[in-house]
């Protein structure tokens, strides 16, 4: 006997509470099989395809592209033939495709990264940020996501007057969007919600084309929130040095492997970073403001900036300190391919302790980046370009690169930061010195 089963938006892990529908992979009336991907969604961490746990006919899709749904909300309805499996009895087979707490059969959970040595904590008392704004209106407000609060503040909404449609009256992103639309339609003084509208005309008051408004959602919204928090909380500083990278390029050529698998410059720079952090562990750290402590991490989880069609993302090489150069190259290549394909999982873009930012691929020499909160440091690498350079006492044309280190001044002072950066520059100029770090 046919029955309708609703597939709910599953728990996506990492504290994520909502996801935006990027595109539907099925239409109403389509036949779907167990574990067939039916929709692509974007969270604040990654873009993932969700497999349906039911086989049958799609009878309803809840929401369109661009809509934001809360975890636990209906995603798609499927008409199935009642069988032992669809009635809730264990399936004998299944692909085991899972997210977090969801799948067609039991699948071992991802093991946590080993940490034989506990993190070292050092008390610190960060100074308050002068002129910081209050976190929001007084009194508890049932909001499902910090991004919802940020959106409400940006539009001048009082969340206490926004009715919530979530469980227990939780205020969802869709509730705030609806309140903004109502406020823009209603004249001033009408209704319970007020908003600050955008300019009616162009920046100089003349009539003209309307500005393009792009929703700040998913990873872009999460990145915006993280950048703002980093600037608000972290007193950062930057030091830089120019280095002769000619020998590093020669080392890359010498390391060409017979199987054709390349060891690129990013892998060599990652190897240099790991060696530098072993000598300067104070930079592999973060600040726990709630406990007023500096936390020095025993493992190095190396993040690196990667560009994808949906914007900047920072995949993380787990336990980079345990990998050799070839292992780093293989993992960097795998994560880069996943970033471009939009298939990174939330676990692959979280938990970094230090970031390597190779902005030189965009043809620029230098940058002072925003730290990837809550990390305490980031190494920036500019483009490698030919330049007149004094080499062995003579003027020559060499391949040089600008290196910069942006660091949290609460974690270390300038001398320690300069020591790490100088270590990196020395290994760029003399790659054979990496043998000292083995």
From TrEMBL:
InterPro entries: 2-oxoA_DH_lipoyl-BS, 2-oxoacid_DH_actylTfrase, 2-oxoacid_DH_E2_comp, Biotin_lipoyl, CAT-like_dom_sf, E3-bd_dom_sf, PSBD, Single_hybrid_motif. Keywords: Acyltransferase, Lipoyl, Pyruvate, Transferase. Residues 4-79 form the Lipoyl-binding domain. Its EC number is 2.3.1.-. The keyword Zinc-finger does not apply. Residues 143-180 form the Peripheral subunit-binding (PSBD) domain. Its cofactor is (R)-lipoate. It comes from the Bacteria. Pfam families: 2-oxoacid_dh, Biotin_lipoyl, E3_binding. CDD domains: lipoyl_domain. It is an enzyme of class 2 (transferase). Belongs to the 2-oxoacid dehydrogenase family. This is Dihydrolipoamide acetyltransferase component of pyruvate dehydrogenase complex. It comes from Streptomyces hydrogenans. The lineage of its organism: Bacteria, Bacillati, Actinomycetota, Actinomycetes, Kitasatosporales.
């Amino acid at each position: 006997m046919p029955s309708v089963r609703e597939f709910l938006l599953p728990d996506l892990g990492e504290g994520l509470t909502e996801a935006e529908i990027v595109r539907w992979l099925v239409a109403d009336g389509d036949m779907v099989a167990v574990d067939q991907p039916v929709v692509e969604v974007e969270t604040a961490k990654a873009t993932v395809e969700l497999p349906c746990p039911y086989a049958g006919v799609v009878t309803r899709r809840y929401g369109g592209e661009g809509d934001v749904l809360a975890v636990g909300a209906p995603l798609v309805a499927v008409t199935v033939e009642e069988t032992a499996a669809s009635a809730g009895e264990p399936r004998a087979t299944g692909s085991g495709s899972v997210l977090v707490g969801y799948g067609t059969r039991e699948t071992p959970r991802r093991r946590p990264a080993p940490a034989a040595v506990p993190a070292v904590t050092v008390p610190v008392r960060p100074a308050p940020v002068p002129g910081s704004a209050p976190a929001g209106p007084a009194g508890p407000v049932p909001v499902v996501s910090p991004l919802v609060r940020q959106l409400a503040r940006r539009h001048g909404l009082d969340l206490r007057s926004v009715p919530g449609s979530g469980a227990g009256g939780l205020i969802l992103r869709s509730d705030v969007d609806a309140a903004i639309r109502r406020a823009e339609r209603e004249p001033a003084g009408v209704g319970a919600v007020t908003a600050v509208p955008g300019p009616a005309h162009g920046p100089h008051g003349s009539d003209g084309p309307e500005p393009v408004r792009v929703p700040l959602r998913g990873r872009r919204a999460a990145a915006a929130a993280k950048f703002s928090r980093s600037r608000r909380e972290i007193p950062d500083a930057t030091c830089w040095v120019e280095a002769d990278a000619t020998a590093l390029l020669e080392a890359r050529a010498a390391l060409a492997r017979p199987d054709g698998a390349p060891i690129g410059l990013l892998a060599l720079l990652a190897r240099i970073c790991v060696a530098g952090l072993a000598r300067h562990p104070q930079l592999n750290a973060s600040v726990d403001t709630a406990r007023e402590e500096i936390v020095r991490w025993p493992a190095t989880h190396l993040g690196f900036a990667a560009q994808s069609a949906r914007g900047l993302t920072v995949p993380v090489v787990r336990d980079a300190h345990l990998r050799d150069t070839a292992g780093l190259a293989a993992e960097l290549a795998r994560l880069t391919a996943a970033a471009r394909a939009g298939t990174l999982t939330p676990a692959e873009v979280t938990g970094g302790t230090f970031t390597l930012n190779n902005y030189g691929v965009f043809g620029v020499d230098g940058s002072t980046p925003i730290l990837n909160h809550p990390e305490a440091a980031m190494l920036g690498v500019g483009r490698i370009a030919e330049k007149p350079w004094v080499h062995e006492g003579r003027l020559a044309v060499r391949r040089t690169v600008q290196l910069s280190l942006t660091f949290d001044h609460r974690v270390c002072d300038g001398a320690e930061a300069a020591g790490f950066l100088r270590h990196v520059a020395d290994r760029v100029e003399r790659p054979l010195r990496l043998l000292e770090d083995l």
